[in-house]
Amino acid sequence: MRIAVTGNTGQVVTSLLERGPVVGHDVIALGRPALDLADPASVMRTLKAAKPDAIVSAAAYTAVDKAETEADIAQAVNGEGAGAVAQAAKALGVPLVHISTDYVFDGNANHPYRETDPTGPTGVYGASKLAGEQAVLAAYPEGSAVLRVAWVYSPFGGNFVKTMLRIGGERDEVSVVADQVGNPTSALDIADGILAVLSNLAANPDPALRSVFHMTAAGEASWADFAEGIFAASQRHGGPAAAVKRITTAEYPTPAARPANSRLDCSLIAKTHGVALPAWQGALDTVVARLLGPAT
Q1: pTM
Q2: How far apart are the C-alpha atoms of 18 and 22, rounded to whole Å?
Q3: Quick check: 50 and 4 in contact, CB under 8 A?
Q4: Which residue(s) pair with 101 in the sheet?
């Protein structure tokens, strides 16, 4: 398949550019200035010109804290922009995978969130991403799958793993929040999952394949657990490490509230699409090894 993915430099975009050709797909990244989610006309024009067989809607406004003071921009990009991508996919008659987030939930549940659980974003970013989900499914329900992911890291761009490795080389101890729990997920694994879902959408018209799905790595961790896992992997590969001091969310205030519970139940996508991402610990070791290797 010829797959157009929105965005130029994001972790999922870059992972798709790497993983797609491995399984025989031609992946093209389309981002600003040619494709600007804040300019719906550019979205339709650029995607039509690309003549894709499938589309991945991966570009987004992702500055969670900054969104609190840039609500209009976040909504334009993550809400209306996502809808514009769906409209283009419908006009082209090709399957669409739209990437969303655990931030559509308030984080107060005592279980991993299911797709049927009520949404309730607590900040602008989460609200804008929820608006994007709704816009996609309103515009193109017969051709779209929405994939909610969480705690994304990779060898590319800026992310928590890279931050911890840098800090591990600078100091002996780092304070990390221990009362927020989620599923650390490699963007490389997310890319593989997206490609599998797209193949299913292209091959099978079953409406059950076109819905909202949760897709994260197996296993859960707090941010402090994740940091300890990063440093353990780093030490295995000869890299830096620091002691982790466990702190509370209250001790690390941010402009936008973070969900205390970001865990996602991924049983539906496993049952419906046959997609189950690997455990986070092994995926993390792979990414850390790449980041510490001579080619990075």
Answers
A1: 0.96
A2: 7
A3: yes
A4: 149
DSSP letter at 261 equals B
- Catalytic site includes residue 113: no
pLDDT score recorded for residue 291: 97
Q: One of 61, 103, 113, 125 is an active-site residue; which one?
A: 125
pLDDT of residue 296: 39
Span 159-185, average pLDDT: 97
Query: Sign of dihedral through CA atoms 55, 56, 62, 67?
Result: positive
- The whole-angstrom separation of Cα 201 and Cα 94 is 9
Quick count: other Cβ atoms within 10 Å of Cβ 34?
13
Start-to-end C-alpha separation, the chain: 29
* Among 94, 97, 86, CA closest to 53: 94
User: Which residue ranges make up each domain of the chain?
Assistant: 2-157+185-217+263-278
Count of residues making up the chain? 296
Query: H-type helices in the chain, by residue range?
Result: 11-22, 40-50, 71-75, 81-92, 124-139, 160-168, 187-203, 223-236, 267-273, 280-292
CA nearest 164: which of 218, 58, 239? 239
Angstrom distance (rounded) from CA 130 to CA 124: 10
Domain 2-157+185-217+263-278 top-level CATH class: alpha beta
